[in-house]
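Lab notebook, bench 4. The sequencing result for the construct came back, and we need a structural model before the next group meeting so we can plan mutations. Quick request posted to the team channel:

Model the 3D structure of this chain.
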Amino acid sequence: MKRSLALAAAAALLSGSAFAQDHLLGHETAQSRLAAAAAERRHELAAVDRVLASPEGARAASSIGADIADVRASIPALSDDELADLSVRVAALDSDPVAGLDKDIKLLLEIFLIVAIVILVLRAVD
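Done. Here's the predicted structure in token form:
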């Protein structure tokens, strides 16, 4: 019994080409998902960079003593989860920037977003 089981396992290994087509995910599907993930990352990078490139972003960074150029250059080092989190925050700020709040509170929210970005970038770089 053990011998026949060993022979069956050896035959399965040698005939690996028989299982080559039994992938859970096809090559085209995998490529399209990778391309979609890369496009989503580019979109998120652009959204975060747009906020950092704004005059408010520069003011917020300078108010905490961060060099905005260094922060912007370090954004690509963020993990996908960190970048997605920041992108959601940027989208919330874009969709309802004032939400009935005065300019000072809006500026504080932008500063908080910039500080969050700086902290995540510094953690990612270290």
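The chain has a mean pLDDT of 77.
Will bring this to the meeting.
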